């Protein structure tokens, strides 16, 4: 559409009208949806499909991949709840999360805050913090095995300082096996998490910290009273990621170092799923524990999200 204007004493001038734009209530563009279709199909097939399969298999009596399948109903649930090994796994998983997660998040945040202050050599420190994340899981397990074996570095260090009475078979003792796994979780996750916190803290305006220090606040109060509330939601996201990694990823550390023993002293829920599926060939039991693990993860995510949501 065009408009005509006639200046005083002159001929009319034709002005093209600006192109029409659709408002918020106009027809939405379909390009973005079409581009997302492959990703949505992939997600539905390889994410939602396995979750549904877990619930289906949990209701079956399936003693092995090539064995006949029959409907078990709630029989697997009763079997799991009557199994003392399951309750040992629940206890061990709860202890693992209650100890590893707070230590990892608090120490990683403090370390990330230190790196974000850009001390001398801070770029080198960032690379060094990434080293545990660059090492494969079997290699990390071998490092801990070499340090905690009966003739390893830990016992050697204790004997060299005259504390030989404190030596122990750390990975083979019911009282220390789980603690060793927790130490491995913290060591392997704290550096990478600190780098994530440092990257987020770099985006916080420097004026906030400078104003707090001018008012007499030290680094401790600035770290927890100024910077932490600003990135509180990001801390929640990182906490959820580490919660999921610890909850579902602990099976590989257990498998490589303790095999769930001695007895069931280091058996976790994720390792119990693996053990029952691939060693005991009881797929119904395994996926029943998988359903419980899925529900525990969902409840944990919602709890963390609520605990770290912004309050302003």
Automatic annotation (TrEMBL):
Protein localization: Cell membrane
Matches recorded under Gene3D superfamilies: MetI-like
Domain ABC transmembrane type-1: 90-304
Pfam families, per the entry: BPD_transp_1
Transport is among the record's keywords: yes
Top-level division of the source organism's lineage: Bacteria
Keyword entries, A-Z: Cell membrane, Membrane, Transmembrane, Transmembrane helix, Transport
Major site of localization recorded for this protein: membrane
InterPro entries: MetI-like (IPR000515), MetI-like_sf (IPR035906), UgpAE/MalFG_permease (IPR050809)
Transmembrane feature ranges: 34-62, 94-115, 127-148, 176-199, 234-257, 277-304
CDD domains: TM_PBP2
Annotated region (Disordered), positions in chain: 1-29
Membrane topology classification: Multi-pass membrane protein
Keyword Transmembrane helix: yes
Similarity annotation: Belongs to the binding-protein-dependent transport system permease family.
Protein name stated in the entry: Sugar ABC transporter permease
Organism expressing this protein natively: Streptomyces javensis
């Amino acid at each position: 559409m065009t408009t005509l204007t006639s200046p005083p004493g002159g001929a009319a001038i034709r002005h093209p009208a600006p192109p029409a734009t659709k408002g918020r209530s106009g027809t939405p563009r379909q390009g973005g949806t079409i581009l997302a279709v492959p990703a949505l199909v992939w997600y539905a097939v390889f994410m939602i499909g396995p979750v549904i399969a877990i619930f289906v298999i949990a209701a079956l009596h399936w003693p092995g991949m090539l064995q006949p399948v029959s409907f078990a109903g709630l029989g697997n649930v009763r079997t799991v709840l009557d199994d003392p090994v399951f309750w040992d796994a629940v206890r061990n998983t709860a202890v693992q999360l209650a100890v590893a997660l707070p230590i990892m998040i608090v120490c990683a945040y403090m370390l990330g805050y230190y790196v974000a202050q850009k001390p001398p050599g801070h770029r080198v420190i960032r690379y060094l913090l990434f080293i545990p994340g660059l090492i494969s899981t079997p290699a990390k397990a071998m490092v801990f095995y070499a340090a905690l074996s009966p003739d390893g570095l830990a016992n050697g260090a204790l004997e060299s300082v005259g504390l030989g009475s404190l030596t122990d078979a750390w990975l083979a003792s019911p009282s220390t096996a789980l603690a060793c796994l927790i130490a491995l979780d913290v060591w392997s996750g704290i550096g990478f998490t600190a780098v994530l916190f440092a990257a987020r803290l770099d985006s916080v305006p420097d004026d906030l910290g400078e104003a707090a220090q001018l008012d007499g606040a030290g680094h401790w109060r600035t770290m927890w009273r100024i910077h932490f509330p600003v990135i509180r939601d990001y801390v929640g996201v990182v906490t959820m990621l580490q919660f999921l990694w610890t909850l579902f990823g602990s099976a590989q550390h257990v498998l490589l170092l303790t095999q769930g023993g001695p007895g069931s002293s280091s058996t976790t829920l994720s390792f119990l799923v693996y053990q029952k599926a691939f060693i005991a060939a009881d797929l119904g039991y395994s996926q029943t524990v998988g359903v419980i693990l899925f529900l525990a993860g969902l409840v944990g995510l919602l709890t963390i999200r609520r605990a770290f949501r912004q309050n302003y």
